[in-house]
Amino acid sequence: MVKYIYFALLAITLAFSSCNGDGDHGTVEIDTDTLTIDTSLGIDTTAITPIDTVAVDSAGYLDEEEALTTKIEKTYGVQWDFCDCVVKNDSVNTAILETDDDNEIDIIFARMEVIDQHCKELLTTPNTTPEERAKHERKVRKCLKAAK
User: Which pTM value belongs to this model?
Assistant: First the structure.
């Protein structure tokens, strides 16, 4: 029992002595137009990329969905509509299941890569909760029904 008390006292002492508040913690100054970072602590700021102005709304708040769309389009090019992606992915999946020819499978996989490049935004659709998954499934069924 005495060992546990000594251990607890040691842990508390270390916690308080390591968080004494002394020392330079650096400063971050935020202005409406610029961001200044005090680099005296040796923080590498070259990896920080500025947020596109397109992604900031008129009130100055970041529109995360728009920022993600802009980033995806800069990286992968123009993105297709949700329903276009769903229909084309369904078509490719059906073609893979219906063919046994290796040459045709290579052509299908090449087409899948093109579709994948233009449908990256589809992967960012939130579907982590059961409600979001159900909504996504309804939206997919609606697209497939409209295509037939």
Answer: 0.53
